[in-house]
Design goal:
This protein is of the alpha+beta class. The protein has helices at 36-57, 101-114, 136-141, 144-149, 160-164, 169-172, 199-207, 211-220, 232-237, 265-268, 274-284, 294-300, 373-385, 391-400; strands at residues 3-4, 9-15, 21-27, 33-34, 61-68, 71-79, 95-96, 229-230, 245-248, 251-254, 270-272, 305-306, 320-325, 330-334, 337-346, 349-356, 361-367. The strands form 4 sheets. A 10-stranded antiparallel sheet has the order 2-3-6-5-17-16-15-14-13-12, sandwiched between helices. It has a 3-stranded antiparallel sheet with strand order 7-11-8. The chain has a two-stranded antiparallel sheet with strand order 1-4. Helix 2 (101-114) crosses helix 12 (294-300). The radius of gyration is 21 Å and the shape is globular. 48% of the residues are buried.
């Protein structure tokens, strides 16, 4: 793939059909970026691949955005908000972000830690005294940093079944007194939702301001994320929202919006549109330094724990040389680049966000269906723009598959 040195990208906004906006890139001097022609080509190939797979899987609705630096290259939608109805997904349609919500919680916590509101090595029991493991000395070893890096040492997804039964955290926390971590905190990886969400208590007790208010004032408002919100009530209050769908023997069926995981807001409680997520992606890549400073981004994307099993994923395994987890972000080494990534899946929705650390090109995809096709779309786009594969090959393979 061609890289231009040096290069500056300017952009002129133009509308590309109903509900679709793209930018014409104009080149004139500084910083290594994928060439505009190559990226536009990748964006067109991706759009074909996106529509091909969604049509094949009969996905009800979805949206995507591709960002190059601080500019939107392509942003478009597919399908309807509710299967069987005519109301189409648009750029402002709100989806549940599921575990992509963790990127918001980690970002907020990192901003506050850099403001000295608390320290990463603070003991969690200082903020959540009711948390106890079976061996109490291990409780005192659990630090704030371990919550956001999934390095508590516990078996993955501990007590997620209680979240799925809509149990509040206050009813779940006493259960931890019956178990011990399988390794000392900080020594091994185990994905968590309940423990991750304790960062909400840390933030409130350290600042006196609720987690939801912090997100609204520090992220949503300054980034002009007009449709973003936290919680079930806010999602249900949105008039332009996508319905969740599950797959049945007769195809995709819309279902009620469940409260599960909303009770663990930092883990899975954020709602947003694709237009909002374009702004969030730019901020994560460093283009809103007053919101997320380079130091904050660097801290979040510094590996805390290795995640070897992610290198065995059927799409990534031929390309990754290393996999780890920072704070609220997966970190994948791919060739001479790192991919900063997170995916989400909850009760009828899927979401994914990924960007190239070196090339500053990223993608977000949102779906109102529990389909694994989002993994193929995200990974193959990233592999393509980093020069490690071709979307054209993925398109051809998809055509041949049943």
């Amino acid at each position: 793939m061609k890289v231009l040195f040096p290069l500056i990208v300017f952009a002129r906004r133009r509308w590309c059909g109903i509900g679709r906006v793209c930018l014409v890139l104009l080149l004139c001097g500084a910083g290594p970026l994928v060439s505009a022609g190559d990226l536009r080509g990748s964006a067109k190939e991706f759009d074909r691949y996106f529509r091909q797979l969604l049509k094949k899987q009969k996905i009800p609705g979805a949206a995507y955005v591709i960002v190059d630096g601080d500019q939107v290259v392509a942003m478009d939608t597919y399908g309807v908000k509710v299967q069987g109805k005519r109301d189409k997904v648009d750029l402002d349609t709100v989806f549940r972000l599921a575990s992509v919500s963790k990127t918001f919680a980690a970002s907020m916590a990192t901003v506050l830690e850099h403001e000295k509101k608390f320290d990463w090595d603070d003991r969690v029991v200082r903020y959540v005294p009711e948390l106890r493991f079976k061996t109490r000395s291990l409780s005192r070893q659990l630090q704030v940093e371990h919550l956001l890096s999934h390095s508590s040492g516990l078996t993955p997804n501990a007590y997620d079944d209680y979240l799925e039964a809509n149990k509040p955290l206050s009813k779940i926390l006493p259960r931890f007194a019956d178990i011990d971590p399988r390794c000392a905190p900080g020594k091994c990886y185990g994905y968590q939702n309940v423990l991750f969400s304790l960062i909400e208590d840390v933030i409130f007790k350290a600042t006196g301001v609720s987690y939801e208010q912090q997100l609204q004032e520090r992220f949503f408002a300054p980034l002009k994320m007009a449709n973003a919100s936290v919680g079930w009530e806010s999602f249900m209050a949105a008039t332009n929202r996508a319905a969740p769908h599950i797959q049945t023997g007769k195809g995709w069926r819309p279902v009620k919006v469940r409260k599960e995981y909303y009770l663990a807001a930092p883990a899975a409680g954020v709602n947003a549109s694709i237009a909002d997520m374009a702004q969030w992606l730019k901020a994560q890549m460093g283009y809103y330094p007053k919101v997320l400073s380079p130091e904050v981004i660097d801290d979040m994307t510094t590996e805390r724990v290795e995640t070897k099993r992610h290198m065995r994923h059927r799409i990534w395994r031929d390309h990754l040389s290393h996999a780890g987890y920072g704070l609220g972000w997966r970190l994948y080494t791919l060739g001479d680049d790192r991919i900063i990534y997170h995916g989400g899946w909850v009760a009828g929705f899927r979401a994914a966000v990924a960007y190239s650390e070196k090339r500053k090109v990223g993608i977000v995809i949102l779906m109102n269906a529990e389909s694994r096709v989002i993994a193929d779309l995200t990974a193959n786009f990233v592999i393509d723009i980093t020069g490690n594969g071709r979307l054209a090959q993925a398109i051809a393979a998809a055509k041949k598959s049943p």
